[in-house]
Specification:
Blueprint (H helix, E strand, L loop, with lengths): L27 H14 L14 H31 L4 H20 L3 H7 L2 H9 L7 H8 L8 H9 L6 H13 L4 E3 L5 E3 L2 H7 L5 H16 L2 H21 L5 H7 L5 H12 L3 H14 L23 H11 L5 H13 L3 E2 L11 E3 L7 E3 L7 H23 L9 H4 L1 H16 L4 H37 L6 H16 L26 H19 L2 H12 L6 H8 L7 H21 L3
Parallel strand pairs: 3-5
Antiparallel strand pairs: 1-2, 4-5
Helix pairs in contact: 1-2, 2-3, 8-11, 13-20, 14-25, 15-16, 15-19, 17-19, 19-22, 20-21, 20-22, 20-25, 22-23, 22-25, 23-24
């Protein structure tokens, strides 16, 4: 499809390039019928309240009703959000999405008694329940809930904490409004001397501009806006940290990091191993900066020089159908069944909504529900290699979901965030290996190497630096150190010095970067990006160098959904994330890529 795709309306977009949602609902009337049925069923939740401790059969009956209701609601919601994302200007589907969201919130409220009531059952009585055959299937599900017993308060205290939920979002909401609505980032002159207003959206593109004057101006103008609001940003971030400490202390956790890792049963050792392993492998990153400095012919390398491509004018053109065929070849190590499902899904079965149209949601994602195949939203462009990688990435998510749903009951079909990026990143690694194995010219090889290196740099090194910043900030707060603007910037400046090394000149304003990272308002989340890419590359190496057993281990991981805790699922696949080895494997891969870049560009 040509470049005019984004100018087409939804009705003008060819049907075979759209996802096929008829397997979910064949008509809007059918969706509305299910909506009304679920709305009427909401009242049935009340009939279970106060009965869960009476017998294991009462408990089972409630869980089964809740699971069946959730499954139907998930199907309803999936259709509504997919149709809404096709065209955000379609008021009918926007209305259906809002109805689905309202029902989702009402269901959450109606079922909110279940977890507290389960934890209120006396331990000896619950132990007897768990030995009953009738409830055997639900044992792991109940054990996940019961883990929170020691961190659950009295009914009155729980109600107070629940009532504070909306208030607790104040710092995050304040950051969102300031950063996305009120903040004026300023204006620069582009390479033609024309005025250009800075936005969050074009800032990253400007950091890749070949005109160094444009990059430098954009960088300093961008951070000048943060400097003028630094006290407000500092106060918001400090308030967010204090809010988190209030909840962790209220619920008797040893610290907020422990609370954040508790839900997925991740030990703090995993977090510490990640940081320590990266500390021990910073020299290849320093080496990459030196290579970049030499290739760009600079006396000084600044952060605004670290995004500009080292190869100019790379021409890329790959239609969607060809991209699918290339992806299939790249994924051949995953076996015939996996490959066939990918190709069939992306082409014949129309999992993918391929191209941009007027009003369509931007970006890309993989979605779906237990009673559907996966669906991929794309805005594919033929002249951008990132579109091919994004398609392979989302196909990884989709295959993970497909295998999980085919092999696990609904209750255990969802995998956690800790493992969510493994299958997608695994696919990207195979795609890079395939492209580099082809007969390509030197410029394309350098381009692909740099793309892979920068992916590692952004996902493994950068996210680990963010994770270490969070850990240091929360430790300071837990030790009653005031969280002033100087505290934040001092901690962040120390990490910049460590992670960028002596070869990069750090402009003073870069320490303000800590105030613009939205993930810091979703505490102790970013480390999962780094562990995810580490697990993916360790598993890719294991599968590519192994045989049938190693492949089966990986495919069984995809099939396991949420039937075990994520660390145990990855151990079954052959990767122990409680050990530093997977992170070291990924860092070793990074080092080899940097060495190859050096040999291609500076050896002579």
């Amino acid at each position: 499809m040509d470049a005019k795709a984004g100018t087409l309306t939804r009705d003008e977009t060819p049907e075979n390039s759209q996802w096929d949602l008829s397997g979910l609902y064949s008509s809007n009337e059918e969706w509305d019928k299910d909506f009304q049925s679920l709305e009427a069923d909401l009242s049935r939740y009340a009939s279970f309240q106060g009965t869960l401790g009476e017998s294991c059969l009462k408990l089972k009956e409630c869980i089964e009703f809740d699971m069946n209701f959730s499954r139907k609601l998930e199907k309803l919601y999936t259709f509504a959000h997919l149709k809404n994302d096709e065209d955000k200007t379609n008021s009918f589907y926007q209305g259906n999405f809002e109805k689905a969201m309202r029902l989702l919130n009402e269901a959450g409220s109606a079922s909110s008694f279940i977890r507290p009531e389960i934890m209120a059952v006396p331990q000896d009585q619950m132990a007897r329940f768990l030995e009953e055959k009738e409830i055997e299937f639900y044992k792991y599900h109940l054990e996940q809930i019961l883990r929170y017993r020691e961190h659950t308060l009295t009914d009155k205290e729980e109600k107070l904490l629940a009532a504070s939920g909306e208030m607790s979002r104040a710092a995050r909401d304040g950051f969102d409004m300031l950063d996305n609505a009120d903040l004026q980032l300023g204006e620069i002159e582009d390479e033609s001397g024309e005025p250009l207003t800075l936005t969050h959206g074009n800032f990253q593109s400007l950091m890749q501009n070949y005109d160094r004057r444009v990059r430098k101006d954009a960088f300093h103008t961008y951070y000048k806006a943060y400097e003028s609001h630094r006290f407000t940003y500092s106060t918001l971030l400090s308030s967010s940290v204090k809010k988190d400490l209030f909840y962790s202390r209220s619920r008797n956790y040893s610290g907020y990091r422990a609370k954040a890792l508790f839900s997925e049963n991740i030990s703090e050792e995993v977090y510490d191993n990640l940081i320590e392993s990266v500390h021990q492998n910073l020299k290849p990153l320093y080496k990459y900066f030196e290579i970049r400095k030499k290739l760009l012919g600079l006396d000084e390398l600044h952060i605004y020089d670290c995004g500009v491509p080292l190869v100019k004018n790379i021409k890329w053109h790959m239609p969607y159908e060809e991209a699918v065929e290339k992806i299939k070849i790249a994924l051949q190590p995953l076996g015939a069944e996996y490959n066939e499902l990918v190709g069939k899904g992306l082409l014949q079965d129309r999992w993918t909504d391929r191209y941009e149209n007027k009003g369509k949601r931007s970006g890309a994602y993989s979605s779906g529900c237990y009673d559907s195949n996966p669906f991929i939203l794309m805005n594919y462009t033929e002249d951008n290699i990132n579109s091919v990688y994004t398609l392979a990435h989302e196909a990884g998510h989709s295959m993970h979901s497909l295998y999980s749903r085919k092999n696990q009951p609904y209750l255990y079909s969802d995998y956690t965030i800790f493992v969510a990026e493994v299958a997608s990143t695994f696919n990207e690694s195979l795609l890079t290996k395939f492209f580099l194995s082809q007969d390509i010219d030197r410029e394309m090889r350098v381009y692909l190497l740099c793309r892979e290196i920068d992916n590692f740099r952004g996902t493994l090194y950068r996210q680990t630096m963010f994770a270490e910043f969070e850990h240091k900030v929360y430790k300071a707060a837990e030790n009653n150190q005031p969280l002033t603007i100087e505290t934040f910037q001092e901690i962040y400046k120390g990490l910049l010095d460590l992670y960028f090394g002596p070869g990069l000149v750090l402009d003073d304003c870069l320490s303000l970067e800590c105030f613009r990272i939205p993930h810091f308002y979703f505490s102790f989340y970013v480390y999962k990006y780094a562990t995810g890419i580490s697990a993916a590359y360790a598993l890719a190496d294991r599968v590519l160098s192994g045989g049938d057993k190693e492949l089966d281990d990986y495919l069984n991981f995809l099939k396991s959904g949420g039937s075990k805790y994520p660390i145990d699922l990855l151990k079954g696949a052959g990767v122990d994330m409680t050990s530093p080895e997977p992170v070291r494997t990924a860092l070793s891969k990074f080092s080899s890529l940097v060495d190859e870049l050096e040999s291609l560009t500076l050896a002579n």
